[in-house]
Amino acid sequence: MIGILGGGQLARMLALAGHPLGERFRALDPSPDAGVRDLGQLVVAPYDDPEALDALAAGCDVVTYEFERVPAASARRIAKATPVHPHPGVLDVAQDRLTEKELFGRLGLATPAFAPASSRAELDAAVSSVGIPAVVKTRREGYDGKGQFVVNTPADLDRCWTALGGKDLIAEELVDFDRELSVLAARSADGDTVVYPVVENVHRAGILHLSRAPAPDLAPELQVAAEAHARSVLDELDYVGVVAIELFEAGGRLMGNEMAPRVHNSGHWTIEGAVTSQFANHLRAITGRPLGSAQARGHAAMVNLVGSLPDLGEVLRINGAQLHLYDKPSRPGRKLGHVTLVADVPDELEQRLSLLTRLIG
């Protein structure tokens, strides 16, 4: 049995990928309506409940997590008796944007200029160091555009400090990038690694809207560089499982933005668009199975369905469209599902994507 900290859509897709492998699942989530509830056992409790953590791990061969905001202390408690992959130390890196940027720098992955700030006075100095305009972020707990504030003038700093809660922050140079990219890779316990094609990502209001794979018109040397960066991060952390590294392409070079120590929204296209999905490879890695090929099957696009659903019948009329719903009630800003499109050639993919875009807006 595989335990999962978190029971949302990523846990749901992990369970769907694991059932053909004969795996059973148990998840811990505070919500009784968690998306994985019909695909395995569900322990309903806070993530820091000691008894619930013990109940999650009891009888499991391995425990993983579907999001990086799981308390590292909870993962460490489980790891005393049951293997946890990726190991809890990875959370210490991924949960702190400063530690994350410092890791990238040590491994030779360029980043935007950055500086930490733990007080209002330090915020002034940090923004002065990186220059204006700057983006100021909470060091912890930000996701989908949350916990961020763009500083355009020094007069914004008081509002920035208040808006972000007056907590530990990191100021970053606001990069005039050409586009956002990500690279996903999987590593097994023996160090075997596979890397997926680099993906181009488009965001709306801080939430991922569209991913194209492979990233159109990507210079071959950037794919090579992205693969090398992914491998260096995985090896440095002695990582087991799937990781996603979010990147900027700026002036023909790559810059590291953030990493997610888990299966990732920008890898959903792999379910239909790659030989082995990110979910299957994550499970293969954490259970000691051989990794599968990360090669793309032609060209793919993934579009998130956020806030409300379009006419699903019309979506399914699009040739090559594959619909994935997360069994969630609608509300603004909530990811309710996604659609994957796969085609043999880029022009064909763009035609299908244009049809889908008209339906969802």
Q: How much helix is in the residues?
A: 25-40%
CATH domain class of the largest domain: Alpha Beta
* Order of secondary-structure elements: EHEEHEHHHEHEEHEEEEEHEEHHEHEEH
Mean model confidence by pLDDT: 95
Report how far the terminal alpha carbons are from each other.
41 Å
Helix-and-strand structural type: alpha+beta
| Approximate shape | globular
CATH fold call of the largest domain: D-amino Acid Aminotransferase, Chain A, domain 1
Number of helices: 12
Report the radius of gyration as a whole number of Å.
20 Å
Unreliable segments of 5+ consecutive residues: none
Outline the biggest β-sheet.
9 strands, antiparallel
CATH superfamily of the largest domain: ATP-grasp fold, B domain
CATH architecture of the largest domain: 2-Layer Sandwich
Number of separate structural domains: 3
β-strand amount: 25-35%
Number of DSSP strand runs: 17
In short:
This protein is α+β, with helices and mostly antiparallel strands.
Q: What this model shows, in words?
A:
The protein is of the alpha+beta class and 361 residues long. The protein folds into three domains: 2-84, Rossmann fold, CATH 3.40.50; 113-173, Dna Ligase, domain 1; 179-360, D-amino Acid Aminotransferase, Chain A, domain 1. 31% of the residues lie in helices and 28% in strands. Strand 1 (2-5), helix 1 and strand 2 (25-29) form a beta-alpha-beta unit. The model has no long low-confidence stretch (mean pLDDT 95).
